[in-house]
Amino acid sequence: MSFVVYPAIDVREGRVVRLAQGDYARETRYAEDPFELASRYAAAGAEWLHLVDLDAARRGGYTLLPLLDRIKRETSLQVQTGGGIRAHADLRRLLDAGADRVVVGSMAVDARGEVANWITRHGPERIAVALDARCAADGRWWPAAHGWTRSASITLADLVRYFARAGLRHLLCTDIARDGMLAGPNLDLYALVEGWAPNLCVQASGGVRDADDIRAAKANGCAGIVLGKALLDGRLALPQALRA
């Protein structure tokens, strides 16, 4: 499988935003309209878009169906999207609306058995599990859920192994401490994940600064990378990222 660059659009209250370390109180708003930004990414050569409903991630109830529908109708982008997936009906709604892959986060932490059933039912290409984690003082990694406001009772290692056994293919993994901080992706974390589950296609996320970070993630075995703040702040141009 080829390495995939996923430009990200995080939406809160209809606006393109980025959070620092998952903190809703540390939000940067951008002037771009979400659809116009998606269109520019498509024109620049992106094949995939990572679309996140931050309001839904916190409260449930995906709100971006009109935006998703327009992106699918008016651009060539494949879209992986999530936020607020709390039941199978939510997942089904996004797939029916044209999502190519649905990202499941909090449910993967809170109800992993149910999410494993969804993977079996819809196939490993239609679902990505997003596990966003913090490193504790003892060196163990712990996932967070519900817009990063709650920690899990199972370690990241055990959860990754569980989903690998359940047939998961696409894992999006974020070091919360790096997210939105332009500190570089945590390659040590991805090395751990590869050791826990060598067959997963891991999407690196959080902290990407430049083309060197993209090349490093690819060299360290990641299958893709999610780009947010670096693109929005103009530190990295999407064509440059795609060439990397």
UniProtKB/TrEMBL annotation:
Recorded metabolic or biological pathway in which this protein acts: Amino-acid biosynthesis; L-histidine biosynthesis; L-histidine from 5-phospho-alpha-D-ribose 1-diphosphate: step 4/9
One Gene Ontology molecular-function label: isomerase activity
Principal EC category: isomerase
Keywords in alphabetical order: Amino-acid biosynthesis, Cytoplasm, Histidine biosynthesis, Isomerase
SUPFAM superfamilies: Ribulose-phoshate binding barrel
Pfam families from the UniProt entry: His_biosynth
EC number, UniProt record: 5.3.1.16
UniProt catalytic activity: 1-(5-phospho-beta-D-ribosyl)-5-[(5-phospho-beta-D-ribosylamino)methylideneamino]imidazole-4-carboxamide = 5-[(5-phospho-1-deoxy-D-ribulos-1-ylimino)methylamino]-1-(5-phospho-beta-D-ribosyl)imidazole-4-carboxamide
Top-rank lineage group of the source organism: Bacteria
Principal localisation: cytoplasm
Active site: D10, D132
Compartments where found: Cytoplasm
Entry-linked InterPro entries: Aldolase_TIM, His_biosynth, HisA/PriA, HisA_bact_arch, Isoase_HisA-like, RibuloseP-bd_barrel
Xref: NCBIfam families: 1-(5-phosphoribosyl)-5-[(5-phosphoribosylamino)methylideneamino]imidazole-4-carboxamide isomerase (TIGR00007)
Family listed: Belongs to the HisA/HisF family.
Name the UniProt record assigns to this protein: 1-(5-phosphoribosyl)-5-[(5-phosphoribosylamino)methylideneamino] imidazole-4-carboxamide isomerase
